[in-house]
Amino acid sequence: MRINTKLAALGMAAALVMAACGSDTKSPSATTPGGSTPAGSTPVDTAAGKAGGTFVFGASADPVVLDGAFVSDGESLRVIDQIFETLVTTKAGGTDIEPLLAEKWSSSADGLAWTFNLRQGVKFQDGTDFNAKAVCFNFDRWYHFAGVAQSASVSYYWSTVFGGFSDGATPSLYKSCEATDDNTAVINLTSPSAAFLSGLAVSAFAIASPDALTKYEADKVGGTGDAPTFDGTFGTAHPVGTGPFTFDSWTPGDKLTIVRNDNYWGTKALLDKVIFKPIADGPARRTALETGEIQGYDLVDPADTQALTDAGFQLLLRPAFNVGYVGFNQAKPPLDNPKIREAIAYALNRDALVKAKYPAGSQVATQFQPPLVFGWSDKVPQYAYDPAKAKALIAESGVTDLNLEFYYPSDVSRPYMPDPTANFEAFKADLEAVGFKITPKTAPWRSGYLDDVDAGNAQMYLLGWTGDYGDPDNFVGTFFRTKQPSWGFDNQEIFDALTKARDTADPAARTKLYEDANVLIMKFLPGVPYVHTQPALAFAKGVTGYVPSPVSLESFATVSLG
Amino acid sequence: MIRFVVRRLLLLIPILFGLSILLFIWVRALPGGPATALLGERATPERVAQINKAYGFDKPMVTQYLTYMKRVARFDFGQSITLRKDVTSELLRRFPATIELSMAAMLFAVGVGIPLGFMAAKRERTWFDYGAVTASLIGVSIPVFFLGQILKWVFALKLNWLPTIGRLAPTRELVHHTNFNVVDSLLALNGGALWDATKHLILPGIALGTIPLAIIARITRASVLEVLNDDYVRTARAKGLRTSTVNRVHVLRNSMLPIVTVIGLQTGLLLSGAVLTETVFAWGGMGQLIAGAVLDKDYPVIQGGVMFLAIVFVLVNLVVDVLYAFIDPRIRVS
Predict the structure, then answer these.
(1) Distance from CA of A84 to the nearest CA of B (A)
(2) Residue B126 contacts by C-beta under 8 Å, 6 or more apart in sequence?
(3) What tens digit of pLDDT does each residue of A495-510 get?
(4) Do B36 and A20 touch (CB under 8 A)?
(5) What is the ipTM score, two decimals?
(6) What is the C-alpha to C-alpha distance for residues A318 and B131, in angstroms, rounded to an integer?
(7) Do A291 and A28 meet the contact criterion of CB atoms below 8 Å apart?
(8) For residue A88, which of A20, A7, A174, A187 has the smallest C-alpha distance?
(9) Could you tell me where the beta strands, DSSP code E, fall in A450-524?
(10) H or E segment and range at residue A255
(11) CB contact under 8 A, B253 and A6
């Protein structure tokens, strides 16, 4: 009896395999691109392309939730950017601030009150009006987050840009929002801040429909203090904004679908539908593009760029908006000795590493922020590769114990560090060539490495940063405005310079202050920045209109399947 | 029989209790925590401390464990830290995908493995036998992600026959009642969706089924060889029974016991071990969920997921034990 069942199963399986093998179905491959398209940093044709069709995009994961205020991960923001809009945005492909839901804005003389004149006639996707009251509703919502909603895992961007919340536990930059009339919202700050405007372009500050936020209980955080639960359905099933696409459906692990918003106030999207398909495995994303199952994907492995270009796919490079660096912990001698830090900087052959191990578009860094962000200075000390000088500096320093513990992560690939082991090995050889004795230290990125570095246990380490928004405070300010265990130094001059630069309202004066601060930092040399990279996206041949952005604020509204 | 089943089910309680303690200690003994996993290079000591406080990870382990067990007693595994979704419902929602894949893999493994092993035994020490033994050795040794890539390269990229990601074409719409795509497409009387779902099952099914196939083939071969040399087989042949009858009634049935044991164990392993296959084929099942949770140190998902799998594993083994009684009447489960 049992055997017969098994034999029947066998027959079915065989029939299944044979039927599949005999199939002449070509559906997944029908759109497989061919021919050649030059790769480069220029966007594909941004002119209006052919309308209609469904675009399937290979994402690396599911979004966490479609509520900008509650996320900081790229996959959530990618979808949020299509459904929601912010008051101001960045120029497509750049970091300059442009109007979006606010047509214009101005700040009071003391820099404390910011008046936003809003675009008229805009409606949320649920049909309710977008107006100053809606803007203030959103700001007040964020400001009044409590409990777990205040933690950096939930409202990272609010705490990054505005600091604290209404409970006053930590000072907040935000004071209040007034809707002076339907189309004018005034945001009052507790201290002048120029970084605030760049911060507002982050999709975390997208304006959502107050009706939908309330109706679908966006802020319903239940459970107990140590086992919080997010119970609202706004971010999982009913996200409502003003953007060119509206939410359609989402099955986590399977796909998320958005459709064109035909009532959009601006130029309507060309595509009928965009499907975000989570594919965690990098090689699987590449194969899916090659078979035509998806038409584009992000986080292209640098090792794949050449092969994809050769096969006729389009490689789009995001302008460099990150920095990879060797960090020094000055609390651990001999790194407190400036001559030793300089010696290391001269000993590292950064050009050779970037040429040999990084993909096209990467450039050697001279300071802790990319050239794209204002405040970058061409007057910083350069520390060009010079082993002889390094040896001389070591001799001058009088330091005899040249042992260094050099930390690198064992299992991770970051945009600024595709292969940490290769970087470590190259730098180790450089340092040993001038007389340092290197003890390798390694740990998995999320299982010890970051903890060790953050706690100040690592003497010298490989790390980096990808910017959140186009302001130097998000680079050098994050690293050096306050004392941090990973750097282990206490240099009030640098702290003060960066605080003053952050709080200055006048753009020209700010730029100058940051340029000076960058020179100051690179003289002090808390670490050696060595690379800025251009992360790549890959698209099928024929796709047009996708504009890669340094801050990953990329719209599908202009995209066409061609 | 009923007493046996009930006793085995009651045994689950101490097993799960012990497992919960081990798991609880183990996930917290791993270096790093959910805070650094969530924040990456954005983790600062203050932010990490703030997150640990919000989720109660700063409290003594015993307190955390007691809070946790109070909820588990209500079959509430809490909420995922990274996904912010209810762990129990997320596991249940994704489980059908994993079962569907495991069944496809087992169908392939049994469908090919048993005939292969049987034929190898019947042709002992011929080129076919050596070939089968070698192939099954390769089958157990080949890493799933490598096999997955090779299958994709041949059947998707070169031949254009089969899809490589997901359970249905992304553009296909199907109303889900059971979350088993094959069942749902049958319910919807949607032939296109059924064909689509079946096509999506083939490559991951083969990738996942190769190791059990190799094991089943080897066990079948060994078991059949042993039976073939038994007296009653010789007697049956001597009686003049047809070869097919001898094979079916006397050889295969009597060699089934070890094979069923292996199939049972492998089914349990498949349900819990589809992590790599699910990742390579973007399957969206439970394996992928738990794999991601381990990387992200998402304690509630790791704990809930492993407990869930332990329950499934024990239940599958219970079913195998019960099946013994049907296959071999000499065995009485008691």
Answers:
(1) 21
(2) none
(3) 999 999 988 878 899 9
(4) no
(5) 0.88
(6) 52
(7) yes
(8) A187
(9) 460-466
(10) strand A255-260
(11) no
